[in-house]
Amino acid sequence: MIQNFNLFDTWKDYYSQYSNLFDEQTAKEFPAQGIGQLLELHLQFKKCLNETTERYYELINLPSIHDLAHISSLIVNLDAKVDDLEEFMEETIQDGSGQQQNEIANLKKEMKSLDTKLNQIISMLKSPKEPIANSNV
To answer: Which spans of this chain does the record mark as coiled coil (predicted)?
Structure first.
């Protein structure tokens, strides 16, 4: 067994060496270049994979992500148009109901006047003794 083994000193030496190595490596341009190359490679692979997937979907007649996004935007636009049409119809019905109520009120007035005139005609027919020329028909 080792009698003079100091764990703290060992850890301190390891930390110092590792820290120096890390500082040297980060000071170099190598890690940044390597990471840049890896990112570029990853982007090229992703682009190739996306193109291949789109071609495959087109070949087997399935919609791609772009097709689904386009369809969903068309559905949203259609939904907005239907909502606008519903609002327009509700406004038209509300505006028209006011006009219809006015027309109904006018018809009621005309019906009352016709009813009074008919009552006058009926009363004249029941009493033929009065001359027709004197009545206000």
So the answer is: 75-124
